[in-house]
Amino acid sequence: MTVTFEDAITRYDPVLGIEVHVELGTRTKMFDDAPSPAGGTEPEGANELVTPVSLGLPGALPVVNGAAVEHAIKIGLALGCQIAETCRFARKNYFYPDIPKNFQTSQYDEPIAFDGHLDVELSDGTVVRVEIERAHMEEDAGKNTHVGGADGRIHGASHSLVDYNRAGVPLVEIVTKPITGVGERAPEVARAYVQTLRDIFRALGVSEARMERGNVRADINVSLRPSPDAPLGTRTETKNVNSFRSIERAVRFEVARQAEVLDGGGTVVQETRHFHEDTGTTSPGRVKSDAEDYRYFPEPDLVPIAPSREWVEEIRASLPELPAARRRRLQAEWGYADAEMRDVVNAGALDLIEATVAAGASPAAARKWWMGELARTAKAQEVALEELPVTPAAIGELQALVDSGRINDKLARQVLEGVLAGEGSPEEVVTARGLEIVSDDGPLLEVIDATLAAQPDIAEKIRGGNLGPMGVIIGAVMKATRGQADAGRVRELVMERVQG
Amino acid sequence: MSTIDSAEVVRLAGLARIDLTEDEVTRLAGELDVIVQAVATVSEVAGPGVPATSHPIPLTNVFRDDVPGETLDRDEVLSQAPEAEDGKFAVPQILGEDA
Amino acid sequence: MSDLTRLTAAELAAALTAGEISSVEVTQAHLDRIAAVDGDVHAFLNVDAEGALGEAAAVDAARAAGEELHPLAGVPVAVKDVVVTKGQVTTAGSKILEGWVPPYDATLVTRLRQARMPILGKTNMDEFAMGSSTEHSAYGPTRNPWDLDRIPGGSGGGSAAAVAAYEAPLAIGTDTGGSIRQPAAVTGTVGVKPTYGSVSRYGLIALASSLDQAGPCTRTVLDAGLLHDVIGGHDPRDSTSLPEPAPSYADAARQGAAGDLQGLRVGVVNELGGEGYDPGVRDAFQKALDTMVAAGADVVEVSCPSFSAALAAYYLILPSEASSNLAKFDGMRYGLRVEPSEGPVTAERVMAATRGAGFGDEVKRRIILGTYALSAGYYDAYYGSAQKVRTLIQRDFAAAFEQADVLVSPTTPTTAFPLGSKLEDPLAMYLNDVATIPANLAGVPGLSLPSGLSDDGLPAGIQILAPARQDARLYAVGAALEALLLQQWGGPLLAHAPELAVAR
Questions:
Q1: Which residues of C belong to the active site?
Q2: Percent of chain A having pLDDT more than 90?
Q3: How far away is chain B from the Cα of C381, in angstroms, using its nearest Cα?
């Protein structure tokens, strides 16, 4: 492929559509009381977490998990959606071995939540509002493993093995309206959108939301048009996008690929494509001919869900503070500038700073440590900030030592070194290494007298009112005391000595 | 009002995953066409203002507590499977993408 | 031959409780009867002598030990093979489930076991309950004990025939469009379709989810009430299960048996029972109606115009839901698996080959029809419209029940027709259900009891319908009419059935 993303973006306007599936962390499945693998139950083997219902046995009937409904409403509210006054489940009919009934119980034209939005903040502070079409409840499928093929993929496999442990796990599917006006930031927006959703799921406590474990899955729809006022182009849907980075890469690739097709006078085929981690490319997936006729009809085995407005308000009142709101509150409390706050969030230092402030440090001091010395150290060691062997409590203690005057900034860095090296708490390191500032004038005066005696001409200048070379004296004194002197006090004493 | 001819029967049989012989297709097309003509009257009976009833007895909000129950015995279940391997259901090769 | 098989369930229960007979005796008597006549009748697909006798013996021991037992404990029962029984083969009358052993019990079966009623076996049925004659069973038809060359009704012909042939005092049936009531009518027995949601559907192999109901097949109204009391009631495993506790239907039947119908408003539905109904059937119905009037009932004519569209709506709703319910039978997890005779052996092709080989004609017909009705572009005209007709039918019932306490009609247009006589014309077969279908669409309960003999000497049935959740009214009125007719006839109608030849 010769067209690059950067090139493509100069000639085409990309439009995105993102479908995110999140596995809810309820203890049991969506329609039966089998323990759910997404809710903390680790099965020892295949097909252990199944009942007649999740296995789709003849005669089995679904019963809705009330906790899953509550989780779905929470998600809807967090996304600013309206919660349906009444909604139903519907059957989506298609044949595939991983869905035991050969239909999926989902929601069709009556989703539980609809018409919301999510403000997504990019790393440079730009905020993009993503309109949410709907969020609905459905059940997950089982898992196929393909045996006999080259790399465990379908093509060339001789047969497949099906495990229904995951079949019936509660899912909420969130569908955006077309995301327009993002231009060359499309990949970033797609990634940030899913990340923001993930953070919300965690904050709500509705899912572990780990993309690498499949708790959060994203299908990315991309289409191109020659300009923002042109009608929408044909879109492709890319699946198997299993990490945040993959989301960006998938968007970049699809934009470039579609541009090349269009440049050549061709038309983009509406299809589902499969993302390949190793190459960062997409390839066509299953041809969807009339498998598309899902013959939706209302699920006759389930009755409608009509969440009372009281219940919805109860849930709304119980929502925890969401990440964006929390960031705004903390920024205001801490008095950080926008750029400073962004840097903190991007560095993953938010929680650490919050804990450090709770341990008594000022917000400014907390930021100084985590974004300064500690960030540098983490980078040098190639680890994440939270992996450093120092706790926010320890930083709080360190800053308290500085604030009390027992050590200064320079000494504090040495203390921090000691803490990182595992020598103990800041207090212990100060004591062990003898890093405390000398507070007694006596020893200081000795050193000052000695220094002045060694530098008579400078002493003369200072006596004469020329304070320029004061720094030399102070520097010498600091050196002699190994930095353990308060520079301001030294200055005062030098002035006294020189006069008298 | 549409009719069901052989081509339509073939299309529907594909959607429903049922192999039909040629004779069956022809016969079904004839039978179903008659039936469809007979039942098509429903679209004339109810006016636009009539709501649909999908449940004969109106119930809402039937929920279950999120408490785990008994699971099936895996061996018992797999003993009924046409083929099983490694604790899983063995099925012939599947064409089409990974889910 | 033992007399025990000629007793009603109520009589057997009383005798068991009084210690006059043992459950083993009763159960053995019925097993003997099955062995004697079922070669001809073919009501049973599966007989579990060991299991039934085992349970019977256990009940006898428990009774001897002074344990408190359910009133029906030790009374044997047969179960239609559409109901899942753990450890016992369940086929739904289809080849596609040949030999399938479910790993769980239907809720109603659990309740039968809790009441400690020995389960004699599984009865024959039209495949996946699609039919009105039991001729669509993949395992051969059941024959009407009144005339072995005639159909016993369907889809639950096996349960009705078992009861009519004295092979079981009680049987479980399911009714989606008349599959309990119609066989009852043509075999001279009693059958009840409860209010939708009265009996749990958990464990019923689904045909049309919004229409199916399990219910009792018996020889008397009291027996039906007793059995309904065992299997009915709320089930948390069935979301459509009625939440409220149920009254005792046996009690309602006992109260009704006094035969007093004073002031009862009986509605005769214009649209049910006119043209297309055999004169002999109509005569028997009219005589039964006259009996009710003589006992103090008032007859009122009601009109339910939407009932003329009921058959059409039914034959859209049922196939649509069934096409989805039967999708799970694909050879991947249980049941028959057939590989295509040529070409690649892929999952998709195995599914299609399995379903092509495993499903019978009627099932294929309805699945294709249902797939069509739900198809993109057709939904509104077909399934969507049919659901609207349903609303009209409910409204007509509601209006009718303002004027009448119960509605009545002949249960079926004809008596039992000869085997093979309606197989060429599916539509003609569908017409058997024209009187029973409206109740399923609306969810209201219906009961059929013998109305009399038709001019061909074969039994006809009278159907009683009550408002939703008023099943007790059915039992009260049904028991009253039954008592009155019994008096007139000097005995049950079933006594007129010819004695079956006993195999040696």
A1: 80, 155, 179
A2: 77
A3: 5
Based on the domain organization, do A306 and A327 belong to the same domain?
A: no
Give the start-end residues of each E strand in A28-169: 64-65, 82-83, 90-93, 103-106, 113-121, 127-139, 143-147, 159-163
What digits encode the pLDDT tens for the residues B49-80? 899 988 888 999 999 999 999 999 999 999 99
Residue A154 is predicted with a pLDDT of 57
Q: Which residues of chain C have a CB within 8 Å of the CB of A293?
A: 375-376
CB contact under 8 A, A66 and B66: yes
**Closest-CA distance of chain B to residue C193, Å:** 14
Question: How many structural domains compose chain A?
Answer: 3
| CB contact A306 to C (< 8 Å) | no
CATH classification for the domain delimited by B6-45, as one of 2.40.128, 1.10.20, 3.90.1530, 1.20.1070: 1.10.20
C237 vs A: CB within 8 A: yes
Taking contacts as CB-CB distances below 8 angstroms, the residues of chain C near B41 are: 309, 312
Task: State pLDDT tens for residues A145-197.
Answer: 988 765 555 566 689 999 999 999 999 999 999 999 999 999 999 999 999 99
Distance CA A51, CA A60 (A): 9
Chains with 3 or more CB pairs closer than 8 angstroms to C? Answer: A, B
Domains in chain C: boundaries: 4-259+415-496
Q: What ipTM was assigned to the predicted interfaces of this complex?
A: 0.96
Which residues on A lie below 8 Å from B17 (Cβ)? Answer: 95
Place of tokens 């404990």: C73
- What does each C-alpha distance from C423 to A252, C157, C369 come to in angstroms? 63, 16, 18
Domain range C4-259+415-496, CATH class: alpha beta
CA distance B69 to chain A (A): 5
- Tens digits of per-residue pLDDT, C152-196? 999 999 999 999 999 999 999 999 999 999 999 999 999 999 999
Provide the residue range defining the domain that includes A492: 441-499
The full set of domain ranges for chain B reads 6-45
Cβ–Cβ under 8 Å, residues C110 and C147: no
A346-349 long-range Cβ contacts below 8 angstroms, 24+ apart:
A346/A123, A347/A371, A347/A375, A347/A385, A348/A384, A348/A385, A348/A386, A349/A375, A349/A385
Instruction: List Cα–Cα distances, C265 to C295, C477, C484, in angstroms.
Output: 12, 11, 17
Per residue in A192-222, pLDDT (tens digit) is 999 999 999 999 999 999 998 999 999 999 9
What's the pTM? 0.91
Chain B residue with Cα closest to C380: B43
